[in-house]
Amino acid sequence: MKQRFSPDDHIQNLLDGVRRTMYDDAGVRLENITGVGGAQARILSDLSIGIDRITMLPGTSFPLHVHEGAHLLYVLGGRGGLHIDGEDHVLVPGDSIYVPAEYPHGVQGPLDDEQLDFLAFGVPHHPIDSHTRMVLVRDQELTEMSS
Fold it and tell me: Domains of the chain by range and CATH?
């Protein structure tokens, strides 16, 4: 599959783009968490790549979840938290985080009154408002994982 560069598709401004609501895998809206879709492309017939900007307001969090593919996060502003491997880590501007595919993790929104802004780069990529972007880890799955 030979690709061609398309400025209309492959240059997207993450600062001025349209903010979209985010949802979990059951279609439940994630209150006060929004995202701006960035550049994305299909790199193989069944694989996509993309980057988005996510903003979390105070009092928000992404519950424990997994993604089908690996992804990188990069903190632009604010202080937040990452819960992974049973430990909590404070995230500050400039931090980059690698999360392996299918690895349970959660993101805590701002630890103060400033919003948390970060970039999320993933392969495969799912649109900001997709119900397939992440799959929540439910209590039964937690029990099975610890067995």
Answer: 7-146 (2.60.120.10)
